Amino acid sequence: MARKKAPVDGNAACGTVAHALSEVCAIYPITPSSPMGELADAKSAAGVKNIWGTVPLISELQSEGGASGSVHGALTAGAMVTTFTASQGLLLMLPNMFKIAGELTPTCFQVTARSIATHALSIFGDHSDVLAARGTGFALLASSSVQEAHDMALIGTAASVESRIPFLHFFDGFRTSHEIQKIEMLDEEDLKAVIDNDAVLAHRARGLTSDRPAVRGTAQNPDVFMQAREAVNTYYDKCADIVENVMDRFAKQVGRAYKHVDYVGHPEADHIIIIMGSGADTAEETCRYLYEKEGKKLGLVKVHLYRPWSIKHFLSVLPKTARKFAVLDRTKEPGSVGEPMYEDVRTAFGEAMQDDKSLFDGNWPLVVGGRYGLSSKEFTPAMVKAVYDNLDQATPKNHFTVGINDDVTKTSIEYDHEWDIEPDAVSRCMFYGLGSDGTVGANKNSIKIIADYTDNYAQGYFVYDSKKAGAVTVSHLRFGPDPIKSEYLIRSANFVACHQWSFLEKYDMLKNLKKGGVFLLNSIYGADKVWDELPKEVQQQIIDKEAQLYVIDAYDVGQKTGMGVRINTIMQTCFFAISGVLPKDDAIKYIKDAIKKTYSKKGEEIVQKNYAAVDGSLEHLHKVDYPKQATSTK
C-alpha cells in the first residue's frame, strides 16, 4: 500500500515521529522548536499512542535545564525519552548531556539549529548551537530537508538505542523547521520495522530500580576516573557501523537510502564542496545543474553523521579524481584555526594519508574553508557557484565568507547576484501581507489544497519580521512536478500578490516578478481608477515587465460578506482564479471543502460567511488594461 503524502513543516515532520517513539517528552518552549513540543502535547492530550501502545507523558518544566534533567532521570529509569530545543536552550542542557552520554544512556534530542546570542540575539538559524555541543559525547545527525527531518528522527532514535550513544538530531531553524513540504509520511509499521525492540528492552532492563540495585553517577578520584572515561571508546568505535546498519534497514523498509555522507555529482569530479544542513540541498541543486547542463566536473558531499566522524565512510564516497575541496560551515568560531567541519576534514585527510601514502597520488589535496548563512543569511545557487569558482582559481581564497560584502577584513568572495537556475516547470509565487491578517494561514491552506488534489510537490516558506503581529510577512510558495530542492527565497516569481496598498510606497513589490508574470493588488481603487493612483515607478515596472495586473478591493468584499478585515479567504480565491495552478472551478470547490473542514466547528454562520467571501471575490476581481507608458504624477 502506498504511503500517505502530506504537506507538513519540519517541526511536524520530526515531532510526529519523536512522539511515536517516546514514553516521556520533557519540554520547554524556545523558538523555533516550540511547535514540536506543542504537537507532542496535543497528541497526548488527544490520546494518541506511541508504537508500544501507551500515551506518552508530556511534562513542561521551568527551563531547558529542568527539561534535560527530567530527560536524564526518566532515561535512568529505563524509559524512552526525548526533548526539543534550540540555541541558548541547548546550552542550558549541556551539563546533563555530558552525564547522559557519559553513562551511555540512549536518547534522541530533536534540535532546530539556531544562532547562539553573541553580539546580539537572533531567533534565526545556523549551527553554532549544535556545534557547541559536539564535546558532550552526543552523536550529531544532520537533516537537510523536511523529508529528512522526518526520516532521521527515526534513524537517530533507532541508532541510539542500539549503540547506547545518545543522539542529537538537528535541522536548520526556520529554513527547515518552518518550511512546508509535501513529503511521504512514515507509518507505524515503518517505525516498528526500523526500531530494534530487543535493544529497547535492553535499555529498559538497565533502568535503575530497587528490585535490581545498581550504582550509577558516582564521584571518582584520579586513580580510576581516566580508565573509566576511556572505557566508552568501544561504543563510539562501533557507532558508525550501527548507524550504517540502521540506514540500510530503513532503506529496505521505506525505499529511501541514506549514508553517513551522501555524494552527488560528476563521477570524475575534481572540485568538491562539503556541507551539512539545508544548505546541502541548495548546493545539490546547483551542483547537478553545473555538471548536467554545463558538463563541469563538480561534486558535493552531504554530511549526515557528523559525530562520531568516520574517516572510513567519508573517504569511501569521494571520487578518486577529487583534488580540491571547499568545506562550508554554518557557524563562526573566532580565534580558531578554522571552523569545526573544516578542521575535521583536514585532520581526516592528514590521518588517512599518514596511513596510506598513495592517497591522492601522494599529493596533499587542497582544502579551503568558508562560512555562510549565519542567522539564516540567504544561501543561493549563485553563492554555491562562487564557491566552485573560487576552487577553480590558481590560489583559492581560504577562510572566506560568502553572501556578505566584508569590506573590513576582506574575507568575502564575489558572486553574480543575477545568476539563477530555477526550472520553468516550477510555479513560484510571492505574497506580501501583514502579520495576523491571515495571509500566511491562507497560503498554508493553498499548499495543502495543491498537495492533496494534484500530483505536484509543494513548498512553502514564510518570512516574518521578528516583531511578528502587525509587521510585513512574505510568503514564498513553489509548486512543481518534481521534489523541490530550492532552500532559498524566490527571486523570479510567476505570481506576486500585494495584500496591502501601503506596501507600494514602502517596498519594491515588483522587483522579483518575472517578465509576463501576474501582479495581484488589493486596492481601494477600482479597475477604472487604479492605474492613475499607482506611483509612477510602479507603473513603469508593470509596463517594463509586461505584467498582467489584477485588482480587487478585498476589504470591501470582507465588509459585505461579514469577514471584516480578514481578507485571507478572499485573496486566496483570487490567487487560484488567476494563477492557473489548478483549474478555477476545481480550485473553488477545494477551497470551499477546506473552509467546511476548518470552520465547521465554529458554526454554520462562519462557514457561510467564508463561502460568500469566495463567491464575492470572483465577482469583484478585475483585470486592468493599462497604457503603454507611465502617466502617474504620484
Helix content: 25-40%
Kindly provide the radius of gyration, computed on alpha-carbon positions and rounded to a whole number of angstroms: 26 Å
Widest sheet, order of strands = 1-9-18-19-17-20-21-22-23
Output the number of helix runs: 22
Low-confidence stretches: none
Structural class: alpha/beta
Taken as a percent bin, the fraction of beta residues is: 15-25%
Question: Between the first and last Cα atoms, what is the distance in angstroms?
Answer: 61 Å
**Mean pLDDT over the residues:** 94
Shape: globular
Main beta sheet: 9 strands, mixed
Written account of the structure:
- With 634 residues, the protein is of the alpha/beta class.
- Strands 1-9-18-19-17-20-21-22-23 form a nine-stranded mixed β-sheet. A six-stranded mixed β-sheet has the order 10-12-11-14-15-16, sandwiched between helices.
- Helix 11 (279-292) links the parallel strand 11 and strand 12.
- Helix 1 (10-20) packs parallel to helix 6, helix 15 crosses helix 21 and helix 20 runs antiparallel to helix 21 (584-599).
